[in-house]
Structure formats: structure tokens, C-alpha cells
Amino acid sequence: MQLDFTARELTIKLVYYGPALSGKTTNLQALHAASSPEATGRLMTLETRDDRTLFFDLLPLTFSSEKGLSVRLKVFTVPGQVIHASTRRLVLQGADGVVFVADSREAETEHNAESFRDLRENLKQNGLSTKQLPLVLQFNKRDLPSVRTEAELTDMAAQGKEPVYLAVATKGHGVVDTFVGLLHLTWQTLDMRHGFTEKFGFESSAFFADVLGKLNDPRTLPEVLNSRVGRRGLRKEVAQ
Ligand SMILES: Nc1nc2c(ncn2[C@@H]2O[C@H](COP(=O)(O)OP(=O)(O)OP(=O)(O)O)[C@@H](O)[C@H]2O)c(=O)[nH]1
Ligand SMILES: [Mg+2]
């Protein structure tokens, strides 16, 4: 996080982490496609011939609050292939929040676990841990056969403290949900540590309304946050 007090500009770094081919780059592409031109710059990707990320992708996004604080987000993906270990550690440096993109297929369970261990290790090397860092989990590729069941993921979500989202990144499903879920968690954590609300009179509800507006999502923030796994039943109960 960087704060330029005079320019009233806050820069937040978010990182999409996960095993190779889980859909990290696809998430950023979908986010880029959903955002209004005034909110986003060019999506920078550096790929090998077979679409594998070589170094990182970077999507810049800018949102603002009512009181004129502008929030610049730098959204990165790491390269998931095992050989790019040192690059992942580098990209992770200074991250304010992380999305872990898992592949939902049963056959990919071990790859997910290995990548999660790698995330833990790299955070440790950077002096951080999954306990302090805002983290959300995304189970992507829900459209494929032999995926882990929703019941299983609901159990997992109930046991852990991290919000869990389902996605089909190629169709853009769950992409905004995951991103806004992480941004919200990251915002809460940073605000608690640095007191932005007090210092800037920052209106978090106006800010998230701007975020959802610029991502062309008609839902309200509570609706988006309630789309996470384990909350659907709750929402149904509330609606009845
Ligand atoms: N069926 C299906 N395919 C997906 C989905 N999301 C991504 N893919 C495909 O999975 C492949 C890998 O996606 P990427 O986004 O490049 O994966 P990545 O995580 O960035 O991979 P690395 O850069 O190697 O770490 C591509 O062919 C995508 O089109 C999804 O939800 N469903
Ligand atoms: Mg990639």
C-alpha cells in the first residue's frame, strides 16, 4: 500500500495466485472486459506461445470515493508453473491482498494444495502469513466435469475463515464477486490498520458503489458479498 497524502491517492496491490492453468490470467481478462474505460488502463500480459504467463499480468484500475480520495489498484497474476518460483515471490512482495485461484477438478486437488503451500512459504519469506493477509479463495472451472462438489466446498468454507467463491472465469461468472470480495476484505484490513475512514472522511459505501458501477455490475455490495459459498442458503432464508 502506498499513500500520497497531498494527491489524496491510495495505491493498493492485489495478487492472483494459484497453480498453473487454474485461470488467473483469464480472471484478469474478464475483469478488464467488464470494466468501464474510465476505470481501467491497458491489461499488460507477458505470455509464452502456449498462453502460459511468463512473468506476470498487470491490470491497473482506478476508483474514487465521494470525498475525492482516489484509489488505484494494481492487480497482478503470478505465473503458476512450478519453475517460476522466484518470480512468484517477487510479484507477491508488497501485496495487500491475495486471491487464490484453485482448479475445481478433483484431479487437480494435489496441484492446488502444492500451490497453496508455495504461497504460504513465499509469504513467509516476505515476512507475512496467510493469517494476517486478506485472502479469498476461488474455485474456478465449475463448468468442467468431475469437479469437487458444492457440498464439499461449502463444508470447507464453513471450516476456514477465508471467503470462498465459485467461478467460470471464461464466461466471466464469479469474477467480479471474487474481486470485490477481496477488495472489501483488503479495504477493511487497511482501514483498521491506518484509519483511512477517519483521516479522509472516506465513505466506504460510496466507494464500493463506484467500484460496482465501473465494473458494470447492477448488484449492491451486500448482494455481491453474499454470493460467496455458504451464504446462498442464508440469502434464501432471508428472502423467504
Ligand atoms: N473450461 C474452463 N476453462 C477455463 C476456465 N478458466 C480458464 N480456463 C482455461 O484454462 C486455461 C488456462 O487459463 P489461464 O488463465 O491462462 O491460466 P493461468 O492460471 O493464468 O496459468 P499460468 O499463467 O500458467 O499460471 C485457458 O485455456 C483458459 O481458457 C473456466 O472457468 N472453465
Ligand atoms: Mg497466467
Description of the molecule:
The chain has 240 residues and is α/β, with parallel strands linked by helices. It has one domain (2-239): 3-Layer(aba) Sandwich (Rossmann fold). The protein is 40% helix and 22% strand. The chain has helices spanning 24-34, 85-92, 109-125, 150-159, 175-194, 196-200, 204-214, 221-225, 232-239, and strands at 2-4, 9-17, 44-47, 53-64, 70-77, 97-103, 135-140, 164-166. Strands 1, 2, 3, 4, 5, 6, 7 and 8 form an eight-stranded mixed sheet that branches. α4 links the parallel β7 (135-140) and β8. The N and C termini lie far apart (42 Å).
Query: What does the average pLDDT come to?
Result: 91
State the domain count.
Answer: 1
- Bin the helical content: 25-40%
* CATH class assignment: Alpha Beta
Do you know the CATH architecture? 3-Layer(aba) Sandwich
- How many DSSP H or I helices? 9
CATH third-tier fold name: Rossmann fold
Main sheet record: 8 strands, mixed
Shape: globular
C-alpha-based Rg, rounded: 17 Å
- What is the CATH superfamily label? P-loop containing nucleotide triphosphate hydrolases
As a percent range, the share of strand residues is 15-25%
